[in-house]
Write a structure and sequence with these properties.
Blueprint lengths: L3 E7 L10 H15 L7 E3 L5 E6 H11 L7 E8 L3 H12 L9 E9 L8 H16 L4 E3 L6 E7 L4 E4 L3 E2 L10 E6 L5 H11 L2 E9 L1 H4 L2 H14 L5 E7 L1 H10 L5 H20 L3 E3 L12 H8 L6 E2 L7 H11 L2 H4 L21 H8 L4 H10 L2 E5 L5
Parallel strand pairs: 5-6, 5-7, 10-11, 10-13, 11-12, 13-14
Antiparallel strand pairs: 1-3, 1-4, 2-3, 4-8, 4-9, 7-8, 12-15
Helix pairs in contact: 3-4, 5-11, 8-9, 9-10, 9-14
């Protein structure tokens, strides 16, 4: 068998879309091309509910790994294109199965067909039987058996309208919607466990998520800054193009410490973060904010405090983790491979000047009274004027 490979890419949620389905498909194909732009010799086709990449065996391994990080991809398979001939299809199975057979051991296998082209005159079960029987006839004496429910080797066949692909290595994808199909969002990222997971979840809903980090290097050192940059680069692998805005926050925190009630500090920090994030989002064309908040997880995330923080913005705030518990978030962070970075011992700026007893049910009128005691508007504009913008692209992944 030559080293030419066909990669079959499937999507599921996109297929449920109506008249605008092609817009989602085009966006997904564009994202796939972007992820593969440094891989030479690729050919793309997108006929009738499937996406195909044609490439060398070596390139197929690279593409298969990258496809696992592209939201919108339900699964992908590396295989070979063959004629719609049962003997030719069975020959592929024999070639792949034969090296796996060992003396004195039984290997169980089955054939599974998806007949996307209903004009083909055989049903999927009939194709399974025809191809499977030919493979079994050649290899039964060497310990090969059929087992539909517990097969150790599954030969899959895709009968498409344009071509037939044989494969045995279906790789699951992230599913969801392609990045960019839902617009741009600004995600508050702190360096903790929660916010990277929230940003990742928004990417899977088709959003391109830019990050905003509130920095306090004069008091905290650059450990937190370096950690957030590292997390942002890791997350950028899922969208390949985003920005990280770094906002100096120390002057605002000092003003809150010096002029406001200690119990209100964390909630006042959050209100200022929301105000700044909304101003930056509007300036940069983002349609919403996203945070890693979860009800009741810390003092600033009680219903009362979440409401007090939300009052200062009129932009949508998405909280994809709002009903998750900490263990669920940790497990997802581990799968995302952000967890080990997030637990590095560098606290975020909300821990600066932390009061011994932060308010868990702050009243909005009391917070507004505190905010009259320092010139927050001017401090906000100064912070935005000093903001650093870090461009993230494929070269930073």
């Amino acid at each position: 068998m030559n080293d030419r490979r066909t990669i079959l890419i499937r999507y599921d949620e996109i297929g449920l879309k109506g008249k605008n389905r092609n817009q989602f498909i085009d966006c997904l194909v564009k994202n796939i091309r972007e992820q593969m732009r440094d891989v030479e010799g690729l050919e793309f086709k997108a006929p009738h509910g499937r996406i195909f990449i044609y490439c060398s065996l070596e390139s197929a391994e690279v593409c298969s790994r990258r496809l696992q990080k592209i939201p919108g991809v339900a699964s992908a398979s590396v295989g070979v294109t063959r004629p719609r001939d049962f003997d030719a299809l069975a020959a592929v199975g024999v070639e792949w199965i034969e090296p796996l057979l060992q003396p004195g051991r039984t290997l169980k296998f089955c054939v599974r067909t998806n007949r996307a082209d209903k004009s083909f005159p055989y049903t999927s079960p009939e194709i399974d039987r025809e191809v499977g029987s030919r493979i079994l006839h050649q290899l039964h004496s060497r310990g090969l058996e059929v087992d539909i429910k517990a097969a150790g080797f599954v030969l899959e066949i895709e009968i498409g309208q344009d071509e037939t692909v044989v494969f045995n290595n279906r790789v699951p994808g992230l599913r969801g919607l392609p990045v960019g199909s839902s617009g741009e969002v600004l995600g508050l990222i702190s360096g903790g466990i929660d916010s990277p997971v929230a940003i990742y979840r928004m990417m899977k809903r088709g959003c391109r998520v830019h990050g905003i980090f509130f920095d306090n290097r004069p008091f905290m050192g650059r450990g937190g800054y370096d950690k957030v940059v590292k997390l942002s680069k890791l997350l950028n692998a899922y969208q390949r193009r985003s920005r990280l805005y770094v906002v100096p926050f120390e002057d605002i925190q000092v003003a809150i410490r010096d002029h406001c009630r200690p119990a209100h500090r964390v909630v006042l920090y959050r209100r200022m973060m929301y105000r700044i994030a909304q101003a930056v989002a509007q300036q940069k064309g983002c349609l919403a904010l996203a945070t890693g908040e979860s009800v009741g997880q810390v003092a600033s995330q009680t219903l009362e405090n979440l409401n007090a923080v939300s009052q200062v913005v009129n932009m949508s705030v998405f909280r994809p983790l709002i009903g998750m518990n900490k263990l669920e978030i940790i497990n997802e962070a581990k799968q995302l491979e952000t967890y080990d970075i997030s637990i590095e011992p560098h606290p975020d700026c909300c821990s600066v000047f932390m009061p011994p007893r932060p308010a868990t049910r702050a009243k909005i009128k009391d917070l507004e009274t505190d905010e009259t005691k320092f010139a927050w508007e001017g401090l906000m504009q100064e912070a935005i004027a000093k903001m650093e913008c870090i461009e993230l692209d494929a070269s930073t992944v």
